[in-house]
Design a protein that fits this description.
This protein has helices at residues 7-45, 50-67, 88-93, 104-111, 128-145, 148-151, 154-163. Helices cover 63% and strands 0% of the residues. The radius of gyration is 18 Å and the shape is globular. Helix 1 (7-45) runs antiparallel to helix 5, helix 1 (7-45) packs parallel to helix 7 and helix 2 packs parallel to helix 5.
Amino acid sequence: MTRNSTPEEARNYMKDKMELLEKASKHIYYEVKMFYETYIFFKTKKTYNSLLIEIFLLHCRNLFEFFYPTKKIRTDDICVFDFLDYFDEFNNNKVIQEDLGFDKENINKFLSHLTYTRCYIDEMMWPLLDIGEKMVKTIKAFYKALPDNCKNWVYFKELNDLLN
């Protein structure tokens, strides 16, 4: 869309954008669901194994990148800014990045590929329940800050149901 776009072009752009965001909501819900199910498992069963830890960290990392995008965001990346009209409510209610206890660099080294750093990483070193609790708070802040029309999308309704 350009500065000289007609009103019809502007409406079509917004319609296309909203349709794309609604499609993206399915993938956000998937990440939340996979993260949340492992978090609840850890919380209720008090048992951990490597597979579940990796699933938790993988989906937590994807959500971390969604909620706390860096300056290196690529044009194809889905991020929180795509969905929110006003960021104050989200920023005031989410857990600040530094308090999340999420060591993205070590998690990337643990999950993405073989590194020598992995020789020094204990998979149990992450405070999984604490990270999970704080990520849930951030997810809830995101849902609360969504525009009302987005809250009516199927996958965001399911996201809300999952967390409540």
